[in-house]
Specification:
heterotrimer; A mainly alpha (258); B mainly alpha (311); C alpha+beta (94); B: mainly alpha; 13 helices; 2 strands; C: 94 residues; alpha+beta; Ubiquitin-like (UB roll); three-stranded antiparallel β-sheet; 18% helix
Chain lengths: 258, 311, 94
């Protein structure tokens, strides 16, 4: 593997790890705050799946980097400008509707994405994807049902869902922008590749989301604003707070066993 | 004349048979069970909060997963216990209301704050340790659904205490700061853990009836002694100082002696005057209130759906 | 009139204190009738002390094709088991 491919692969895997960790951290915030006990327990399972996924990606990233770092070094000792998760993952759980709509939009995306990643030329990535997609199919089943029920529930639930969708919509274009690393690791059209071509997922994603939102009585907003840049470390102000909380012990007492 | 419900019930209790939901049972037995079981369920659910307070700050990804899985388990155990209580015709809504109004109690230990990462270890080790002592004895409680829930819970909880203690080993063998953190957590959590077993047998309002009905199988003081006996060697192994200077092996009794619990504090905390009582209920009530629109929407959706399928 | 009477699933509690377990099914017209048939068909050798009957169509079952996404993700969570936490022999009895 050439040096530049190595760097690209490291950055690519790190981005996927950051996506999973940051959403897992956000989702774990629901623990003991769910709308009822059964859902509370289910949300923790969701968070556990994401944190588990993050660990697999970080471990692999550390291995690619080859500097003897651990998953925790990567998760706990980088600042917000160094985190490269997509911005949609870091937004706070404004209400249950917001978390559900975000999860749904990401689940549809992840299903498409992981399906392709499971064909990656990179064996480890294809293994992780094959494992993650099983979880994601289940997540999608859940979030799809929630969108339908809350979209068609009461006037209040429909309004909250629509507000969430309006608020989140501007963060979705970023799901389809390939980063530098991704471009470097993508093959020519029709050729086997390491990374997934994000652009190619846009059409199918939009089709599925639009159809389900229609069934659920929700309206796809106009795309008249967008926030992108997470992969370059351009984040919302929310991420810094999330990280300062998450990293507090490691930063206060660096280098210890826990 | 056929045998009275009371006589059948008495004979069942006498011969160690389980009482099942549709059996006749004395009104006070039912009431007593609802009180104890819902209190137990509330303890599990409120118990999610102190440890939950550290999920976002767990110092490694592995610890974060373990902690989240553990706190989730507490919720799961609350669920098993609520559903066992629902077999007695108490509804989840009624139980939630009783919790919010302060009518229903929960283990007073959860009214203490979890102030450092070591508290997470100490809670797993001591609080779950104390709970397991109690729950093992409750596996043979006379009410079938409660007993079966306890069996399931004990099986699942086996990891809780071990992960807590394992964390304490790491801290006790770590840096000066980590060891101090572990000692401080032990010192703060020790006494409230002993209080978890409730008042002395001689002062326990519900103990007599509950023992007679075999809802409870061992007395508060017996259980507390078992806990102290099993825990002291574990403190020694960690190389931490005893949290109570009066802890001493008593050859004659074959047990460890220990100091007297501050019963005034116990009563204060139980009756609402602990460091976190208001926070715990506010947190639970807020989650419940914030979820109202979600629950309403589910009902509305189902209503619409069944109307549509009937049409 | 419908062609066939309903299918019911039968659950028996073999002795007091244990859970009801599924033992089989039968056809009946009403729940009450299902209960008496269950008694005649499934407890001829004192197999039970309590019977539940549930209409088969009221049972929602997980689907075989969902098994991968339902159960596989639970296989990689060793930290939910006590044996994951290695303790020294002196304190290994918890």
């Amino acid at each position: 593997m050439t040096n530049s491919t190595n760097t690209a692969l490291f950055n690519y895997v790190l981005g996927l790890a950051d996506d999973a960790l940051i959403l897992g951290q956000r989702t774990s915030e629901w623990c003991s705050r769910g709308p009822f006990l059964e859902e509370d327990i289910a949300l923790s399972n969701l968070a556990l799946d994401y944190i588990g996924r993050a660990r697999m990606f970080y471990q692999y990233a550390a291995q690619i980097q080859g500097m003897g770092k651990t998953e925790d070094d990567l998760a706990y000792f980088r600042d917000e400008r160094e985190f490269t998760n997509l911005v949609i993952n870091e937004l706070p759980n404004f209400d249950f509707a917001f978390s559900i709509v975000r999860q749904y939009l990401l689940d549809v995306h992840a299903c498409l994405y992981l399906e392709q990643l499971s064909n990656s030329k990179d064996q480890r990535l294809s293994e992780i994807a094959a494992k993650a997609i099983k979880e994601t199919r289940y997540h999608l089943k859940r979030s799809e049902t929630w969108v339908l029920q809350l979209g068609q529930g009461t006037e209040e639930s429909a309004k909250r869902m629509q507000d969430a969708l309006d608020e989140l919509w501007g963060y979705t274009p970023e799901l389809f922008i390939s980063s530098e690393a991704e471009l470097a690791l993508s093959g020519e059209e029709g050729e086997a590749s390491i990374a997934v071509n994000r652009e190619s997922l846009r059409h199918l994603w939009l089709e599925r989301v639009t159809a389900h939102m229609l069934t659920s009585g929700l309206v796809i907003p106009e795309q008249n604003w967008q926030v992108v840049g997470g992969r370059n470390g351009d984040h919302s102000e929310h991420l810094g707070h999330l990280l300062s909380e998450m990293q507090i012990l490691q930063r206060s007492y660096p280098g210890l066993e826990w | 004349m056929s045998e009275s419900g009371q006589a059948i019930f008495d004979r069942r209790i006498e011969s160690e048979q389980k009482v099942e939901p549709k059996d006749w049972m004395p009104a006070d037995y039912r009431k007593n069970l609802i009180r104890q079981m819902s209190q137990h369920a509330h303890s599990e659910v409120i118990g999610m909060q102190p440890e939950g307070n550290w999920i976002s700050r767990a110092p490694t990804l592995k610890r974060k997963m373990v902690l989240l899985a553990k706190v989730q388990d507490e919720g799961g155990h609350g669920l098993y216990l609520y559903s066992a209580t629902e077999t007695l015709n108490a509804t989840r809504d009624e139980m939630n209301e009783a919790l919010h109004s302060g009518k229903a109690k929960y283990a007073s230990i959860f009214n203490y704050p979890a102030l450092s990462w070591a508290d997470v270890g100490a809670i797993g080790w001591l609080v779950d340790g104390a709970a397991i002592v109690n729950q093992i004895s409750l596996q043979s409680t006379s009410y079938g659904p409660y007993s079966r829930a306890m069996i399931r819970i004990c099986k699942e909880e086996s990891f809780h205490q071990r992960q807590g203690y394992e964390m304490m080993i790491v801290l006790a063998n770590g840096t000066k700061e980590q060891k101090a953190m572990a000692q401080d957590a032990l010192n703060r959590i020790w006494w409230p853990s002993l209080m978890m077993f409730g008042p002395h047998d001689s002062d326990s309002a519900h103990s007599g009836r509950s023992m007679q009905w075999k809802i409870k199988r061992r007395t508060n003081d017996e259980l507390r002694q078992s806990f102290v006996d099993q825990t002291v060697p574990q403190i020694e192994f960690l190389g931490l100082e005893m949290p109570d200077p009066e802890i001493k092996w008593n050859e004659e009794r074959g047990h460890y002696d220990f100091g007297e619990i501050d019963w005034d504090e116990f009563k204060r905390v139980i009756s609402g005057d602990g460091p976190c009582n208001r926070d715990r209920i506010r947190h639970h009530k807020k989650a419940h209130d914030d979820g109202q629109w979600v629950r309403d929407a589910l009902v509305a959706y189902q209503t619409k759906k069944s109307a549509a399928s009937a049409a | 009139m419908k062609k066939n009477n309903d299918l019911y699933e039968v659950f028996l509690r073999s002795i007091r204190g244990v859970d009801h377990r599924h033992v089989g099914s039968l056809h009946a017209d009403t729940p009450e009738q299902a209960l008496t048939y269950a008694r005649d068909c499934y407890t001829r050798r004192s197999e039970g002390v309590s019977i539940w009957v549930v209409k088969s169509c009221d049972i929602t079952a997980s689907q075989e094709q969902d098994a991968e996404s339902f159960y596989d993700p639970m296989d990689d969570k060793p930290y939910r088991h006590a044996s994951y936490y290695v303790l020294p022999d002196e304190v290994d009895n918890m």
